[in-house]
Amino acid sequence: MKKIFFTAGPSQLYPTLPSHIQQAFVKNIGSISHRSTFYKSFHARTVENLRHLMRVPDTNQILFFSSANEIWERLVQNCVETGSFHFVNGAFSNRFAQITEELDYPCIKQEAMWGKGFGFASDIIPEWVEMINFTHNESSTGVMQPLAVVYEYKRNNPDKLVTLDVVSSAPFPELDFTFLDAVYFSVQKGMGLPAGLGVLIAGEAVLQKAVRKLERGKSIGSYHRFTDVWEKAKDSQTVETPNIMGIYLLGKVAEDMLRKGVQQIREDILQKQKIIERITKISDKFSFFVKEEPFCSPTVITIEAGEKAAEYIKIADSEGLVIGSGYGKLKSTQIRIANFPAHTLEDFALLEKLFRKLL
């Protein structure tokens, strides 16, 4: 039975991916040198496609790592000396704060209840903090942080770096990089690729912070120092052998998304979200975990399903629809449904049919 994966990551692969993988083998992508002209040509094309897809300014550099988790470490190592500030409203935003502490840097957490987001407060960021970290879409809870609030913190703290995790929302949000110094994601969610590649979109201020820290005799890591990674990226290369296949496939999928149109992708995601809204309105068996509309994510939809959540997940799997459980302490009573570009309206129609059967 062919299965459709509505899990929050890894998730459903983008529908054109199998043909791109076949072509990658024909072109020997897995065997070529990462210093070759051929590699540099499609590295550059992937970067250019991402620039167009996410409207990234030419002043920002697009850098490749192994995962978003690695990017957390690299941001702290390269850009933090005195400390960082973390807006925490779920497991993943909290993990970034924990990594900061594990690397032995001061860290302040502003915490919200799971299911809640943040408004703006003018007096909570200490002067000594260098980096302010937001999670745009908290994968564990289905909370989407309003970008206007993120931008307001940058307006009020222009001398501090502002980072944004878009791991489970890219390429859905339309971002204004004027207010964002670092934006990052992994490819196994919204981009519809296998795991193993992280993307960091970094502004000039990120590089300059790393340069200044290094000039003061502080460590900014070893092989993945932003000074070195940035320099290699200018020549469409990486410091070591990267996930060559992943970079090639990312470029191809980004090209397909551009061909479809990012605005159409956004409209489709919102239309699929409405299908789930219909389901929750016809029965008290299901309800949205995130109650306040400004914080309700369209890309990771978290539903309260009660003590039968695991049973519903099992029934769905038997019909070829793989949906996720709640995360951590919410695992036994919630289900999470990913709504990414790889999911079609037809996929969600099948999901609606299943839920109506469960009701």
Contiguous runs where pLDDT drops below 50 for at least 5 residues = none
Give the strand order of the largest sheet, numbering strands 1, 2, ... along the chain: 2-10-9-8-5-3-4
Instruction: Let me know the largest β-sheet.
Output: 7 strands, mixed
Count of separate DSSP helical elements: 11
Distance between the termini: 24 Å
What share of residues are in beta strands?
15-25%
- Written as H for each helix and E for each strand, in order along the chain, the element string is EHHEHEHEEEEHEEEHHHHEEHEEEH
Name the structural class: alpha/beta
Shape: globular
What name does the CATH topology of the largest domain carry?
Aspartate Aminotransferase, domain 2
Q: How many structural domains does the protein architecture include?
A: 2
Which CATH architecture of the largest domain is right? 3-Layer(aba) Sandwich
pLDDT averaged residue by residue: 96
Name of the CATH superfamily of the largest domain:
Type I PLP-dependent aspartate aminotransferase-like (Major domain)
CATH class of the largest domain: Alpha Beta
Count the strands?
15
Radius of gyration: 20 Å
Helix content: 25-40%
Structural description of this entry:
The structure is a single chain. The protein has 359 residues and is of the alpha/beta class. The chain folds into two domains: 4-11 and 261-358, Aspartate Aminotransferase, domain 1 (Alpha-Beta Complex), CATH 3.90.1150; 17-258, Aspartate Aminotransferase, domain 2, CATH 3.40.640.10. The protein is 40% helix and 16% strand. It has eleven helices and 15 strands. The chain has a seven-stranded mixed beta sheet with strand order 2-10-9-8-5-3-4, sandwiched between helices. Strands 11-12-15-14 form a four-stranded antiparallel beta sheet, with helices on one face. Helix 1 (17-26) crosses helix 8 (244-260), helix 2 runs parallel beside helix 8 (244-260) and helix 9 (262-281) runs parallel beside helix 11. The longest helix is centred in the last third of the chain and has 20 residues, at 262-281. The radius of gyration is 20 Å and the shape is globular. It starts with a strand and ends with a helix. The mean pLDDT is 96.
